[in-house]
Amino acid sequence: AEKLTTATTREFKHHLVMFPFMAQGHIIPFLELAKLLAKRTGFAITIANTPLNIRNLKPKIDSTGAGLDIRLAELPFSAASHGLPPQAENTDSLPYHLIIRLMEASEHLEPHFERLLRRICQEDGGRLPLCIISDMFFGWTQDVGHRLGIPRIQFCTCGAYGTSVYYSLWIHMPHNQTHADDFVLPDMPQVTLQRSQLPPIIKMATGSDPWYLFMNRQISRNVRSWGSICNTFEELEHSSLQHMRKSTGRPVWAVGPILPFSLVSSSPSDTIADSDFLLRGLAEEKSSRACLQWLDSQAPSTVLYVSFGSQNSISLSHMKALALGLESSQQPFIWVVRPPLEAPLNSEFSAEFLPEGFEERVKEHKLGLIIRKWAPQLLILSHPSTGGFLSHCGWNSVLESLSQGVPIIGWPMTADQFANSKVLEEEVGVCIEMWRGKEGELEPETVERRVKMVMKEEKGNRLRQRAAEIREAALKAVSEDKNGEMKGSSVCCG
Ligand code: UDX
Description:
The chain is of the alpha/beta class. It is 43% helix and 15% strand. It has 18 helices and 16 strands. The strands form three sheets. It has an eight-stranded mixed β-sheet with strand order 1-4-3-2-5-6-9-10, with helices on both faces. The two termini are 37 Å apart.
């Protein structure tokens, strides 16, 4: 049964209800936004989710949200009844055909979510929650809000450019109107895309498949939301934010960069080093400390950090090309490895996925670190030895990298990542893609060339210089005056 899982104070406060999609890349910024809103407003915040995600959130709130009135609410959920493996309550390691099932299953939470809102209202002496802040993948919460008379705001955990391009592609499917390789987005004529820059699920969408139908159900409600919150900042994405404001005719607030530490503090490592949020459990804590010690032994800006976020994998052949390319570049690296796309669901990483003898050679010649599954990403990015990030361009990774002045080699794989990589390369000037177009096989030589370009050559210095400027702009966006009041462009950060 539904139940509030944290102790609650019962004196009246305004109440906000938040509901992230069940993926690390969404839950992390939602939690951080909840903390900022609770701190800034003194309102009570309830975060709703499925039982497993609530259980995972509980220690994070206990350790990093102390003193804030953040409550957790479980919504009943049975993965098995939606044809999902038991415990598949978030996208961790789920392949795409199951992620869409999880998304569709989320729509069945509607009556439970409505019951939760009614109960909060009852407990608050008949006062409705002030507003619902829910994920862009949960357009259906708009209907619940409408029925109860509660305004709903969509939180786009991606950037403004990524959100606009992603929505435009789903709504217009412009690539299906032409045989040409390049096409223009009808509502963003300044954006020309190539077919190779389409997320595979959009490229394959037929107009009657589950992804297409799901996204259209959500977007058609999202455009009616009371407003949108974007995890970005004006200095980075002013024109895309303006485009969203004009096209939706509703308020669009830039609140970022929202990160799991305060950008305003002088040393991110100090504020996050003890957070179990980043050092997930003792085993990982041990390997995290080893990883930081290893970074201490490297020269400034020489280490390339390689990671593809919380849910993406690359193919076996790409993994081998990447390994050989890294090795021949002779550039120190930290690589967070996951089983390749071809591996069965929930398999452990095995040395066989890498070229023969690779791990041994890396250890013997002290070329770098290979970390299985999860690394303390923010600590790595904030370390002075880190000079580049080979990333899938998930938006959290992008903001974390830029907030530390680290340039990116883009290797987008899905969703908003292609748009993120494109805008960062073409407009912001902090990224260069691994191999644009992804035509043919990836060769180790391509990897070697890109790595050397970003880590050793003049082009890399220019990218690093620009990334340092963006870091300064990010600091300005979330700056506070001496009384702790916000004075930057971002709406609630600090
Ligand atoms: C997803 C989508 O893929 C992405 O396109 C969208 O913009 C956000 O949601 P994800 O793929 O997980 O996100 O990537 P990302 O947005 O980069 O978030 C990953 C988070 O996990 C980051 O906060 C990162 O610091 C953290 N992480 C990931 C680690 O701390 N350690 C790891 O080893 C991997």
